[in-house]
């Protein structure tokens, strides 16, 4: 089992997305917010990449400790975490062939120590 703790307040990827225009084609596209980009960069400081990214079936359990009791979308938090794990070289991809389940994931409250705890276990 791999355990990763990211000691910063978790954020979702979908809040405050930016609609930008491709200069070459003139088409619009949605880009992540600057806040998410900063969050992903900060996370990379706490995640040590593996020699080979995981390419087998795993359960990714995420426990989010939020700094406030505000309503939060667990699915969006998990999407951001999975993308960070792929970007940092922990998972090869975040599709259904690798992430088989997210059993045990939940959102809790800890005003003094917001963080994300990630547990990655091989599924047999």
TrEMBL record:
It comes from Clostridium tepidiprofundi DSM 19306. GO terms for biological process: DNA recombination; DNA repair. SUPFAM superfamilies: Holliday junction resolvase RusA. GO terms for molecular function: magnesium ion binding. It comes from the Bacteria. InterPro entries: Endonuclease_RusA-like, RusA-like_sf. Pfam families: RusA (PF05866). This is Endodeoxyribonuclease RusA.
């Amino acid at each position: 089992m791999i355990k990763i703790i990211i000691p910063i307040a978790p954020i979702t990827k979908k809040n405050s997305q930016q609609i930008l225009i491709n200069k070459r084609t003139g088409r619009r596209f949605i880009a992540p917010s600057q806040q998410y980009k900063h969050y992903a960069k900060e996370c990379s400081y706490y995640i040590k990449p593996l020699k080979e990214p995981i390419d087998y079936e795993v359960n990714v359990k995420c426990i989010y400790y939020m700094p406030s009791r505000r309503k939060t979308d667990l699915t969006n938090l998990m999407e951001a975490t999975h993308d960070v794990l792929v970007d940092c070289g922990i998972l090869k991809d975040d599709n259904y062939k690798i992430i088989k389940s997210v059993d045990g994931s939940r959102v809790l409250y800890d005003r003094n120590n917001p963080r994300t705890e990630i547990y990655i276990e091989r599924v047999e």
